[in-house]
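Session log. Operator J.P. requested a structure for one protein chain; no other inputs attached. Running the standard single-chain path with token output.
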Amino acid sequence: MRPERVSEIIRAAYADKRNSLYEHEAKELCGLFGLPVTKGSVVNSEDKAIEAARKIGFPVVLKIVSPQILHKSDVGGVIINLTTEQEVRTGYNKILSNVKEKRPDAKVEGIFVQEMAPSSTEVIVGATKDPTFGFTVMFGIGGIFVEILKDVSFRLVPITRPDAIDMIHEIKSYKILEGARGMPKADESALVDTLLSTSNMLVECPEIKELDMNPVLIYEKGAKVVDARIILEEPKA
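Structure written below.
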């Protein structure tokens, strides 16, 4: 049974005539299904950005929120690892300046202030929907390597715990998760829980068309979804 807040998030996007969720909406939706998303909030002033950073705890990341900007880094819409209030103030204005210069047509809804998760092994969890077979969930090594290595595994949704374990063990890069070459040993139980929660979310949210959580940082204990993208089905007439 899905929380009512999930429907509210999706209805708000459709009301805005959007078929995608803003990152903060996607993360809130994921969090409602138990996925370990980074903390954050959307603000509309320098002072509110500093207040949010204090509440979240330094360091923080700032990201532009705009329906016209999907690839935030391309327009200078992301600044990471801000460790002081002054850096947040400067970063806030820098992002607005960058966007005004590179995408003057973009409507700015605000700035997303989020926690800066410690670096670790990156994995990707995603999903696509087939008109005949429904959702397929994907798992693999994430970050910049996902396009290069294409080392991923797939299962039809819903998945079971054994399915999730098999998905993790199937990838060729599994030794990285075991702690090869000085990498931290990944918390496999956290990965399994992440895959199961993702499957549950997809079952409960037929409005989702595509899901991309990349990177998901996996630690020796726990995991963090750093970035999340959700594309919705076209609203029914």
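Operator note: The chain has two domains: 39-116, 121-232.
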